[in-house]
Design goal:
The protein is mainly α. It has two domains: 46 residues, no CATH class; 138 residues. 74% of the residues lie in helices and 2% in strands. Bound molecules: protoporphyrin IX containing FE (2 copies). The site of one protoporphyrin IX containing FE (HEM) has 9 residues, from helix 5 and helix 8.
Length: 186
């Protein structure tokens, strides 16, 4: 199968940026790309996004587990009336915010990881987007450190801003991709 055809079917577009020499051999090549662990580049293409998938699922798992703590405190704990009464403030509020944002920011990292692994985002942008999305995980982590150890919420701000930058940058790359595809068709 021709290089362009293979990638056109794989990611739904035709773009010469995806077709570096030796990188487009076919299905065998895709298997190699998806399992490469030690080497972050495959056939000259940088493999960004793997860390986002790993940490994304890790955060999703850990912060989902916090949901059981929330359920326990709500339904079973001896001090449950007191807990329910502070729904909109204090430890209850902050633990729920950590649970919600840890799970959701984990999912965003999973989405970013998949997009970076599948779409031909230029390597330098992909590296920045990947690290910014990972830094975004400091947001829920910061909430946990704040509620458990009283750490000032600076990490929450750094994480929040990083995640916003990552998503806006990825949006830009997606629009550029569309423009490149359209130009190619004309
Ligand atoms: C095993 C998995 C999960 C368990 C046991 C769980 C449990 C809970 C519980 C008990 C609450 C209520 C907290 C309260 O009363 O203050 C809650 C709220 C919430 N959870 Fe989960 N959860 C799970 C997974 C998830 C996932 C995967 C997400 C998002 C991707 C999520 C997002 C939220 C959000 C946004 C709220 C707040 C809802 C609101 O404001 O009313 N949860 N969860
Ligand atoms: C820069 C990033 C973000 C910051 C700083 C932030 C901050 C906050 C804050 C302070 C609250 C509490 C609002 C209140 O009740 O007074 C909140 C609630 C919430 N946020 Fe975010 N958020 C961010 C991103 C997101 C994203 C990306 C999602 C979804 C994908 C999300 C989903 C939610 C949900 C579901 C709640 C309601 C949780 C509850 O009250 O139980 N947030 N957020």
């Amino acid at each position: 199968m021709a290089c362009g055809d293979y990638h056109a079917r794989r990611i739904g577009i035709r773009d010469e940026r995806t077709c570096l020499p030796g990188a487009c051999a076919g299905p065998q090549d895709r298997r190699t790309a998806n399992t490469a662990r030690a080497d972050p580049t495959v056939g000259g293409i940088a493999m960004h996004g793997r860390k986002n998938l790993g940490f994304g699922f890790l955060f999703l798992g850990l912060f989902m587990a916090a949901g059981f703590f929330l359920g326990f405190m709500h339904d079973l704990a001896s001090q449950k009336d007191e807990w329910i009464a502070q729904y909109a403030s204090g430890t209850h509020f902050e633990t729920r915010i950590a649970h919600a944002h840890g799970s959701l920011f984990g999912l965003i990292n999973v989405a970013v990881g998949l997009v970076l692994l599948k779409l031909p985002v230029p390597a330098s942008s992909a590296r920045w987007i990947s690290w910014l999305a990972l830094a975004g995980l400091l947001m829920p982590l910061g909430v946990v450190l704040h509620v458990s150890l009283g750490v000032p919420p600076a990490l929450v701000l750094v994480g929040g801003v990083s995640m916003i930058l990552a998503t806006l940058w990825l949006a830009r790359e997606a629009f550029v991709l569309r423009a490149a595809t359209r130009d190619g068709a004309e």
